[in-house]
Amino acid sequence: MAYWTWAKDQVGSFVEKSAGNVFEYSLNDEDFNQPDFPHKIWVGDHIGNPFRYAKVMKTRAYIVTDEDEYGKPVVEKWYIKNHREYLVPTKAGRDAHIRVG
Length: 101
Prior knowledge:
Low-confidence stretches: none
Number of helices: 0
Helix content: under 10%
Strand content: over 45%
Number of domains: 1
Structural class: mainly beta
Distance between the termini: 30 Å
């Protein structure tokens, strides 16, 4: 059986420790105006909101789950394991790669 996802331009993946779920993430290319959250974690399908804004680190991920009455992000901290950064080709050529995270 093939693996299929709605994630776009993935740059890495990790396993959330408490439930053991695997997530992939991309760089944040949205106009969110929150420089503290440079990633998008893909959490759902194409219906609704398929991703959450986040900051993925080596052993933790900070995920925006909502916003408060003042428009500030409500953040949840996840402990993660098996964090993998993918090699992402750049426009400089097939031998050049960027490191994310």
